[in-house]
Amino acid sequence: MRSAQPTSLTLTRVAAATxxxxxxxxxxxxxxxxxxxxxxxxxxxxPQVGVISAKFQPVALETELPARVEAIRTAEVRARxxxxxxxxxxxxxxxxxxxxxxxQIDPDPYQAQLVAAQAAVGRAQxxxxxxxxxxxxYKPLVEANAVxxxxxxxxxxxxxxxxxxxxxxxxxxRIAKINVDYANVYAPISGRIGxxxxxxxxxxxxxxxxxxxxxxxxxxxxxxxxxxxxxLQDLRKKAGGKGIDSAxxxxxxxxxxxxxxxxxxxxxxDVTVDPTSGQVTLRAQVSNEDAALLPGQxxxxxLSQAQLPSGILVPQQAVTxxxxxxxxxxxxxxxxxxxxxxVKIASQQGENWxxxxxxxxxxxxxxxxxxxxxMLPPGTPVQPVAWTPQNSATPPAxxxxxxxxxxxxxxxxxxxxxxxxxxxxxxxxxxATTPANSSR
Length: 440
Fold this sequence. Notes:
Blueprint: H1 4-36, E1 48-53, E2 57-78, E3 83-88, E4 95-96, E5 101-105, H2 108-143, H3 149-182, E6 184-186, E7 191-193, E8 203-204, E9 211-228, H4 229-238, E10 249-253, E11 264-269, E12 279-287, E13 298-315, E14 319-323, E15 326-332, E16 338-342, E17 344-349, E18 352-357, E19 364-368, E20 383-386, H5 408-416, H6 435-438
Parallel strand pairs: 1-20
Antiparallel strand pairs: 1-19, 2-9, 2-13, 3-5, 3-8, 4-7, 5-6, 7-9, 9-12, 10-11, 10-13, 11-12, 13-18, 14-15, 15-16, 15-19, 17-18
């Protein structure tokens, strides 16, 4: 009896422990099932990505180049006589008209010279009258041999010398009058005048051509554009060897990135390459009635210098530039698997890149949804949907995206992540939850 009782207690304890273990395992299983949810065994659908279809079309190669603004006409107002400035007769920074009086230089010395020149003219004319009368009196006498021919010849020579003296005196009188006029400094052109470079009481010199003011005509301005000769030749090759049209429209991009509301036109392209910089100069002209452009201002201009027979426009956010393999983008194949593809880019056109090599007609180019591939293994199929550009502002790209890091390091990181990029705001798949996030 004593031996059976301990055995029964042992069996009872073992059974109780077994029941507790089974209950604990059941509880853990219930929690796991609750976490996994009712569809834990279902396969996740492929992530949606926005794509465009590659299409060849004639494309104008738009180039953005630096330029300096230059007034269409510039006149330096300089002293043309020596003297002291008595008065300034204009408002600095105002518009002046051609022929308007600007400065008054002391005219008294030149007035005195004019009076002396006028007196010299009168004296010369009196001498001419006297010598002419002698010639008239000697003419009949020499015919009658009453006066020698030598005396008559001397009288004629004296008359001609008197005529020359009259002409010389008149010339000196004209010079004196010009100097009197130069004492009043006039505006040579119409335009906006800057600050006065001399003040009342300053001594100006005609010998040193003292600059007194600067007038610039800015209702229309020039744009002096510089471009690499190599780039210009490359554009001509792409255009089939055609020259640049001198009437091309030119868009002006200001310092803040805004585009001027009116366009200019290209005037000419220089035929000489600067040996120090290897650049050529192009000149454009644009109207400037509102004085939005100032002489000397730095701007950028956009112009289409060549026309490609065919090219593909791809949004900039779809391209990773400057990677180890050059410029690349993601192409979604027939099996719906995105793969990187190196491409050749000719230029920029608005918010698109012009792709001239590396794509075929009809291929699907991935534009957004790149961040969904970051947590998935390479070669994961996707669900391509048509991408539509949105007018809403695009949020700043995350670090490692092509927009934020267009250099080789950013391109390498994007390629390592399977082309992971940040989609534009408002895109069909922007903000969609990735498989990695949905499992949390």
